[in-house]
Amino acid sequence: DDLYWLASRSGLYLLGDNELLFSAGDRAERFFVLRRGGIVVSRTAENGEQREMARFESGDVVGDFDFARSADFDAEARAIGPTELVAFPDFGRGMSQLAQERPDVAARILLRSVAMISSRVRSTQRLISDNAPWVRELRKQMYTDSPTGLWSRAFLDEELPKLLVKPSALILLKPDHFKELCDRWGHGVGDIAMERIAELLKAEARTMRRAWAIRLRSNETALAIAGKNAAEAVRIAARLSRGIAGIKLDDALGGQAFRLSASVSIALWPEDGEDFKKLVEHAYGVLMRAWRDGGARAYRARPQCQDAKL
Questions:
Q1: Calpha distance 114→90 (Å, rounded)
Q2: Which of 24, 155, 165, 263 could be stapled to 151 by a disulfide with Cβ–Cβ 3.0 to 4.6 Å?
Q3: Among 157, 263, 171, which residue's Cα sits nearest to residue 211?
Q4: 288 and 264 in contact (C-beta within 8 Å)?
C-alpha cells in the first residue's frame, strides 16, 4: 500500500523551543508536515537583523516549495515551542533512492508538489493584485459616493451581502420636506444637509463593530449593521431620527431656521426576507410609504404585506 510505504520512509521528530529545523543554504532534500507546535521562518537582512517571513502551525507543510524545485533553502526555520513534525523523506534517505524503489509513487509526489507550487503562485498573485494600493484605491472609488463619503448603492448590491451575518439590520432613512428645503434655498443647501446627514450616519457606524453607512439614491440613505436584532435596530433608528431632527442649517440659511425630520423603515435579514436584494427593495418601498404618510415615522418592513408602524 502506497501510504504504508510512504510512512515507512518518513520520520517523526520533536523539536524544542527555538530549535533549528534548517538553515539558509541547506539543501532542500525533504519537506516537513507539522503535527503540533509551530515553525517560524526568518531571513537575515543586510544589516544582520533577523526578519520574520512566515509562520506555520499544525497541519501546515514547510519546505515543500524548495523541495519541489530541488533548490537550497533560502531562509532559516526554527520551532516555536515544543514542535512535532513528520519529515519526508526521512533523514538518511533521498528522493533518488526512493525513485529507484517506487518510481510511480515518487513521480506522483513530485507532480503533486509542482501542482501545489502552481496553486500557491496563483493564490499569491491574486492576493498581491487584490491588495495592491491602486486596486484598493480603485475599489474605494467604485464603491464610494464622492459627495458624502458614504458607501454607494453598488456596494450595497455587490459587496455588502458577502459581509453580513445573521441576523443583520437594515435601516433606511429619507429626510422629510427636503424638496421644500432645496426649492427655497437652492440645491447647494440640500448638498450641505446631505453632508451633515452623512456625517451623522458615519459617526453612528463607527460606534459599532460592523456597520456600513450607505447612500441609496438622491437623499435616501441607509445604515446596515451586522449582528443586530429588531429591538436593537429600533433603538438605533430612533437615535438616528433624533440626530437628523437635531441637524442645524442656520449657518447655510442666513440665520433662518429649518427643522429636518426623517421617514424610516427597518428590515431584519433574514427574518423579513431571505433574499437580501429583494429585502432592500421591499424596505425601500416601505420607506417611501412612511414618507408619503407624512414623514416623521418609522415602519417595519415585514414580509408578506405585514408591514407595521413602530
A1: 20
A2: 155
A3: 171
A4: no
Chain position carrying cell 453632508:
195
Q: Cβ neighbours of residue 73 under 8 Å, at least 6 residues apart?
A: 22, 23, 24, 25, 26, 27, 28, 63, 66
Q: Domain 2-131, CATH 3.30.300.30 — does that match?
A: no
Strand-pairing partners, residue 223, are 171, 213
Cell of 291: 414618507
The pLDDT value recorded for residue 24 is 93
CB atoms inside a 10 Å sphere around CB 58: 13
Strands 20-22 and 76-88: antiparallel
Q: How far is CA 96 from CA 6, 30, 92, 100, in A?
A: 14, 12, 12, 6
Residue 294, by phi and psi: left (phi above 0), alpha (psi -120 to 50) or beta? left
Sorted by where each begins, the domain ranges of the chain are 2-131, 141-309
Q: What is the pTM of this model?
A: 0.59
**Topology (CATH) of 141-309:** Alpha-Beta Plaits (3.30.70)
Judge contact between 14 and 84, C-beta under 8 A.
Answer: yes
Q: What is the pLDDT of residues 259-292, one digit of tens each?
A: 999 999 999 999 999 999 999 999 999 999 999 9
How far, in whole angstroms, is CA 172 from its chain's centroid?
23
Q: Does the bond joining 175 to the residue before it have cis omega, within 30 degrees of 0?
A: no
For residue 182 the three cell numbers come to: 432645496
Q: Are 269 and 237 in contact (CB under 8 A)?
A: no
Tell me how far apart the alpha carbons of residues 147 and 212 are, in angstroms, rounded to a whole number. 16
The strand pair at 11-15 and 76-88 is best described as antiparallel
More confident residue, 145 or 266: 266
**Which of 28-32, 141-145, 172-176 shows the lowest mean pLDDT across its residues?**
141-145
